[in-house]
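Supplementary Text 2. Reproducibility record for the structural model of the 678-residue chain.

All settings were left at their defaults, and a single model was retained for analysis rather than an ensemble. We include the record here because the model underlies the residue-level annotations in Supplementary Table 4.
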Amino acid sequence: MSNQATITIDCSRPSGHTVNPYLFGHFVEDIRDHMEAMLAYPLKDMDFESEPGSTAGVPGSWYAYTNGRNTGYALEASAPKHSGRAQRIRLLSDDEAYAGIAQRTALQEGRYTVKLVLRASVELDYIIIEAIDRITQARLGLERVGLAGHNWQQYEARLSVSRDSADAEFRVYVPAEHPRWRDHVSTGMLWIDHVSLLPEDHIGTVKRKVVEMTKDLNAGMMRLAGNYISAYHFEHGVGPVLERPVMFNEAWGGWTSKYFGTDEFIRFCRELGVEPLICVNDGSGSPEEAARWVEYCNGGIETPMGAKRAANGYAEPYNVKYWEIGNEVWGPWQVGTTTAEQFAKRTVSFIQAMEQADPSLVILACGHTDQEWNRTVLDIAGEQIDYLTLHLYHGYYRFAMDHDTPEEERYKAIASFPEWTRYNIEQTAGQIRSNPKHGHVKLAITEYNTMYYPNTVRKGLPDEHTLGAAVANAANLNEMLRASEMVNIGSFSDLVNGWLGGCIRVGDYYADQYCGKLPGWSGHPLTVYGTPTYEVMKLYAGRDISRLLPVDTECGTFSVSSGRPAPINLDALPDLDIAAFTNGSGDTVTVFAVNRSLQEVKASFTLHGFEADGTVVVYEITGESEREINSVFAPSRISCKVNEVSAERWAEDCLLRPASVYALEFRTGSDTRDGGAP
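Retained model, structure tokens:
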């Protein structure tokens, strides 16, 4: 059964403002397995930082690799200037054994750079680095590393891995065939301070596939922030990597990644061609620290922090323009949580210090869906800021729904999330416009996701990665685009794995909000793929859109059953969410059509004031069910299909599949068409 719909677009009245490409931004945070999934290093506990795991005296993910009866393991202080700890191994010559450490990991075919920091007693001449397949015990690669002395030294080797292995073991050890020595005090001793593997195809220490997929997102802006930032001190994350301290992640547990600091983030942004946005630590940090961060990024080499950046190998200033103060500081989970008045006063002091380092900054300040918070922040700091931020995670709690709620009702609830987005934007925009002194302020939605929240788990993956969630996200983007005169910045949360919503997935692990990383191991940990929402984000950001066009839509409606009072009407929500745009030259009209209903809709499109040629390029994201997901077993089940069809047929008889997303591109007689993947 098909519902009927008519869509009329007035192409003669484009908006006076243009859509800011920063609206299609993304977000990186050191949360759960985000950094582990994004970075190219396959090993964990590279600095022996964790507590002992399965073997006494051997930390974290490492374990003893020995057949010696008397091999001893212990942890000591790290090498001078290094962080973490050093692994001490003592071999007795009479055992005539091999001894070292090993770690289970996943390796891909290719060459790896191996870095080690070692010292050894003088009778040890060399060690072996080796990779094997744990299932077949086949050797994947082996190299011998000669030892040059009793003092700490850094060694580097190349290890060629012959094939992919989802279940590999990496070993560092003294082999049994090593010439024996006479046991006496301090013989057969090996200390290891650091071990890392890095595939030679990495891009700035990030997985090549992750970089390539992120480039396809046309992000516009990349945000470095999140809960962890309120306890993060940037100076711990710059300079020689091995000398950076190991820091506990106070927000999420585990260790903050010292391998992805400011310099690596900026390199990532430059590789992607996007604008960086940095959120400063205003929880446990100070205005002076924030000013040093600005100076580190933007100061000339004649400034103290600019000189430090140059000494770290980056002479040219990074010129980071966008800076955010405060990440959800209204939340009791946030380090430095505070009242709106205290935060606003703190914001003013941060701005004053930061602008002494660089007066050209664009400043974002922490806003809230609570308008009393926003009113206070705007009254005190509104004249000094450029953007007020919102984080929009709507969730089931608004509807009093749970696992027992029928699936169709849960889907309709998530499909209504964009209505809540519109409500939050309108309320906050009204607060901004209520006083001319802060009427210049714009909105930045620096975190959002259309999640089934709290988390529900199905088929080893959280439900927010369904086609239905992607449909809701497309309609959410339509709301942000319709408000794009006010909303200039958006950051989808997260980019890779991470909390609940990473649009790029690495392997088949997921992160539960409360329990941390939970395994759903399938034997495909090397698979990198996009969720249905990844397809939506790529589709939207890849279109040539500039100015909003007026749209009139007549279609069917659906209702959402809510067990709680709502500030918005949920009784008759339109099945279709339509947003239309013209490009800068006016020769292309793009229509985003989101069918939120669970029925097929037969739609007709009329474009007034635009003479389209005979064909239309149609981008379609659809599936057999709104519950479908992409996974390591079917990474492309939900993907964007591109076709070129008769504009006349689509204008009069356009069939929009249930729970599906479309982009229609009409052109004025040009033969130049994309025709490829979005």
